[in-house]
Amino acid sequence: MAADRGRHQASSRGRGRRRSRQKERRGRIRALAAVLVPAALIGVVVIAAPRWAGGDDPSAAAAAPEPSDARPGPAPARTSPSPAAKPKGKPKPATVSPSPSPSVTAMPPRIPASGPGTFTVARAGTSSGGGNAYRVEVEDGSGVDPDTAAALIADVLAAPRGWAHGGARSFHQVAEGPAGMVVRIATPATTDRICGADGLNTHGEVNCRVGEKVMVNLKRWQTGSPEFHGPLDEYRALIINHEVGHWLGHGHETCPGKGRPAPAMMQQIYGLKGCVANAWPYDAAGQYLGGPSVP
User: Fold this and answer.
1) What angle do CA 210, 271, 138 make, to 5 degrees?
2) What's the pLDDT band for 129 if we cut at 50, 70, 90?
3) What is the C-alpha separation between 242 and 251, in angstroms, rounded?
4) DSSP of 65-129, one letter per residue?
5) What are phi and psi of 156, to 5 degrees?
6) 27: which DSSP letter?
7) What phi and psi values does residue 56 have, to the nearest 5 degrees?
8) What does the CA dihedral 270, 275, 277, 279 come to, rounded to 10 degrees?
9) pTM for this structure?
């Protein structure tokens, strides 16, 4: 019996030691788990964070300056973003701001309604030769440079489709001395006053010819006409060709037929009557672009 009791006690002590060692192992496993699990969570956060912004730090992106477009260069290379979860529902379409239209951003020039009635003479030298001498004058305070205007007028008067007509007539600009024609760019009020002295009512809107004076209304010179579809310089050519045509002795004409060029001697600002806007008295082949006379 004593021997059996000894063996039983030894067996009990063995089982106790095994249970103690098992408890120690479970304690070590729990301790190791307590260390590893937070570390694993931190690793998940560190790995997942760059995927949130496609590899960019959002605070750095917000502080980065907008790229300058002063000197355009090659576009920067783009990296493919990490795949993201599909959004729920239909995505909203991107809103694109349209580029501003030139007609919206461009401001029309300021047109003074009246001026002092004094004029600055354009310098000579923009044209040469004999023929009809003319002078260009611009009302002070109009905002128009006399020499720039004179250069355009010289080009119109010398153009093959203009009254020069391939050398049939010639014009040359002078700054002083006698001039058979004076082209004046004047404010609406001054134009009305000078034209009105000859019984012509220009209503602050249109041009006229009085004796040797070709009066160009500043409003028309700077803004063109709603009836004329073309560049402003082309409409300025029509002004010069129409009023110089009067100086040469031509009267008003009207539309010769639907779809045909409107005569330069037609008052196109009042409507084209089926014709197409045209600034020149002759076509490229030298044919006169006329129409029925207006009484």
Assistant:
1) 35
2) low
3) 9
4) PPPP-SS--PPPP-PPPPP-PPPSSPPPPPP-PPPPPHHHHPPPPP--S---S-EEEPPS-SS-S
5) -65, -45
6) H
7) -110, 145
8) -100
9) 0.64
CB neighbour class for 275 (10 Å; exposed up to 12, middle 13-18, buried from 19): buried
What's the CA gap between 262 and 269, in Å, rounded?
11
Pairwise pLDDT comparison (79 vs 3), residue with the higher score: 3
Domain count, the chain: 1
Q: Residue 98 half-sphere exposure, CB side, CA atoms within 13 Å?
A: 5
Domain contains 235: yes
Q: Pick the range with the lowest mean pLDDT from 57-71, 250-264, 270-284.
A: 57-71
| Beta-carbon contacts of residue 116 (< 8 Å; ≥ 6 apart) | 139, 140, 141
DSSP assigned state of 251: -
Inside any domain, residue 205: yes
Specify the CATH number for the domain of residue 139. 3.40.390
Separation CA 53–CA 130 (nearest Å): 77
65 has pLDDT over 60: no
Q: Is the pLDDT of residue 213 over 50?
A: yes
The token pair that represents 148 in the structure block: 């720039």
d(CA 111, CA 221): 10
Concatenated DSSP letters of 128-188: -SSSEEEEEEEETTSS--HHHHHHHHHHHHH-TTTTTGGGTS-EEE-SSS--SEEEEEE-H
Domain that holds residue 127: 119-270
Half-sphere exposure of 84 (CA within 13 A, CB side): 12
Q: 164 near 171, Cβ under 8 Å?
A: yes
> Tokens standing for 31?
């301790």
Cross-strand pairs, 186: 217
Please check whether residue 78 lies inside any domain of the structure.
no
